[in-house]
């Protein structure tokens, strides 16, 4: 196998932060449970993508991450699978609210994330639901009331539901801002900030973005602490 440095060079991975762990170049390096490895192999994946290889060991140390990588690089499983490991360690009573919260800019993307969470989480009995606008709240609230480990939500709809006090975020300890740049472009910053105020400060926060403009840097500086930055290719 390649040394960590050679792997990073070959895959154009740059990292900044102290004590960054070496990438998991093979699925077997991850320590994922065998039922999860089986799912991954059944999906036809032969090795982690570069963003997965480098962000998994960091996320699994419980550290905050900013990951900058272009679309199609496998970011979803980049945060979901360490989220599953997080859930394994601290499984809360789902009736008290979700442990993992993923914010996503659109209904379509949120649904895709939920599909991945359901597909890869099934063998670990992880439950997930999705909250988005443009659809009635009733069925979404009903799903929430059943209790779920993971909520994937658009900021607008989650904010609406928070106002009705039908969800509590005080069990959330793993927070993901996916497509952070796009959420900010869409004007969701005030909603994101309101949502994050309801999440305990003792948490792990992961931010995934395709670009790294100053607005994204600012919100990262405000919401993350001592984050490791992982950059793939010439994505910004
Ligand atoms: P991004 O969020 O970076 O745009 P996605 O997470 O949507 O990318 O992943 C893009 C596609 O790659 C999806 O179809 C996903 O199932 C697939 N994929 C994820 N991880 C791997 C892997 N390790 N090997 C091959 N394909 C993968
Ligand atoms: Mg994505």
Automatic annotation (TrEMBL):
Q: Tell me which positions the record assigns to the signal sequence.
A: none
Q: Which family does it belong to?
A: Belongs to the DEAD box helicase family.
Q: Where is this motif: Q motif?
A: 25-53
Q: Which residues form the DEAD-box RNA helicase Q domain?
A: 25-53
- Protein name (database record): RNA helicase
**Residues annotated as transmembrane:** none
- What sequence ranges are listed for the domain Helicase ATP-binding? 56-230
């Amino acid at each position: 196998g390649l040394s960590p440095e050679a792997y990073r060079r070959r895959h154009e991975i740059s990292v900044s932060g102290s004590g960054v762990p070496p990438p998991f170049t093979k699925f077997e390096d991850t320590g994922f449970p065998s039922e999860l490895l089986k799912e991954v192999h059944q999906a036809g994946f032969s090795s982690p993508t570069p963003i997965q290889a480098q962000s998994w060991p960091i996320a699994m140390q419980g550290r905050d991450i900013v990951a900058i990588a272009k679309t199609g690089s496998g970011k979803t499983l980049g945060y979901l699978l360490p989220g599953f490991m997080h859930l394994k360690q601290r499984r809360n009573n789902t009736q008290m609210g979700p442990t993992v919260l993923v914010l996503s800019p659109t209904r379509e993307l949120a649904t895709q994330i939920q599909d991945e969470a359901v597909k890869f989480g099934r063998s670990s009995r992880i439950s997930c639901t999705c909250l988005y606008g443009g659809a009635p709240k009733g069925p979404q609230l009903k799903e929430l009331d059943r209790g779920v480990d993971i909520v994937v939500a658009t900021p607008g709809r989650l904010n609406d539901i928070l106002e009705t006090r039908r969800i509590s975020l005080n069990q959330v300890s793993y927070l993901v801002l996916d497509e952070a740049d796009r959420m900010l472009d869409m004007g969701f910053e005030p909603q994101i900030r309101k949502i994050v105020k309801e999440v305990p400060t003792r948490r792990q926060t992961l931010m995934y973005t395709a670009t790294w403009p100053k607005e994204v840097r600012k919100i990262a500086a405000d919401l993350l602490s001592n984050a490791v930055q992982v950059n793939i290719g010439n994505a910004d």
